[in-house]
Design brief:
There is one protein chain. Among the domains are: about 55-130; about 135-150 and about 170-265, Nucleotidyltransferase, domain 5 (2-Layer Sandwich). Helices cover about 35% and strands about 15% of the residues. It has helices at about 10-35, 85-95, 100-105, 110-125, 200-205, 220-230, 255-265; strands at about 50-55, 60-65, 70, 135-145, 175-185, 190, 215, 235. The strands form two sheets. The chain has a five-stranded mixed sheet, with helices on both faces. A three-stranded antiparallel sheet has the order 1-2-3, with no helix packed on it. InterPro entries: Tnp_ISXO2-like. It comes from Sulfurimicrobium lacus.
């Protein structure tokens, strides 16, 4: 500390950069440790009860009677990734919807690393789903153009450029159905459906909706049939007739707003591979 005043400007800048990188790394590690907490079970042998072992690469390691050790990232998509000091910036790049080129430039990593990080970081959030919707729930279907980006063979059609458009108007096999369900507390679940029919919709929604849930939809025949099959109270809203709210509380504005935000965020990528 006593030597700081004697450093040249370039040396002080180097020290500042080093401290900033170290602080970002510690912030990432703090986030990882705080969200993971004490591991309840060993990912190798499963029995509960762990003992703190040692620190490695900034993370606390735990041990079990099986003799193997693990940390908060073992068994997760982020295991064995390096440069933890840039992970919080990577989450910001995902939030901002940056392209791979923009992300690699902001993070100071190569494009292959930016690509690998993108898919590793997206692997966990896509599995985070609401397990139950309570009170008044809303459900709606939205559609994404089927994309074979990255696929070189067996397209079954002429290649499109930068997303492209469907050859047919309205719904067809070119569209991938996505079901979204939300309750008024903001709990959300979404599903990529194999087919747009009431059987697949009911199979996706039934585990989420207790019998006392009130389901609001736009009145589509598929959602109406699914609600009947599940045996939940159904309150359809006839949007085509200009009716957006029924009895002051039944509407689908929350789920429609979610669909709109999702599509706006996805549009900047000019077509995302369906796989």
């Amino acid at each position: 500390m006593s030597k700081l005043d004697k450093l040249t400007r370039s040396q002080r800048q180097a020290v500042t950069a080093e401290l900033t990188a170290s602080e970002r790394r510690m912030a990432s590690i703090k986030t990882i440790e705080s969200t993971a907490g004490e591991r309840a079970a060993c990912p190798h042998c499963c029995p509960k009860g762990t003992v703190k072992n040692r620190m490695a690469d900034g993370l606390q390691r735990y041990s079990r009677v099986c003799g193997r050790s693990f940390n908060a990232l073992t068994g997760t998509p982020l295991a064995r990734l390096r440069m933890k000091g840039k992970w919080l910036d990577q989450t910001a790049a995902l939030r901002d919807g940056l392209s791979l080129t923009e992300a690699s430039r902001r993070l100071g990593v190569s494009r292959p690393t930016a690509f690998r990080w993108r898919h590793r970081f997206l692997a966990t959030p896509k599995t985070v789903q609401a397990r139950v919707l309570v009170g008044i729930a809303e459900s709606d279907e939205t559609y994404f153009l089927r994309s074979s980006k990255g696929q070189r063979k067996d397209l079954g059609r002429n290649p499109r450029h930068r997303g492209g458009k469907a050859t047919k108007r309205g719904l067809s096999k070119e569209q991938v159905p996505v079901l979204v369900a939300r309750d008024r507390a903001g709990s959300t679940a979404d599903f990529v459906l194999e087919a747009d029919d009431h059987a697949h919709v009911a199979a996706a929604l039934k585990p989420l909706l207790p019998r006392d849930t009130i389901l609001c939809t736009d009145g589509s025949s598929v959602l109406t049939a699914a609600a009947r099959e599940m045996g939940v109270t159904h309150r359809p809203v006839n949007l085509s007739s200009g009716i957006r709210i029924v009895a002051g509380v039944y509407h689908v504005q929350n789920v429609n707003a979610y669909d709109s935000r999702l599509k706006t965020w996805m549009r900047r990528f000019n077509g995302v591979a369906t796989k």
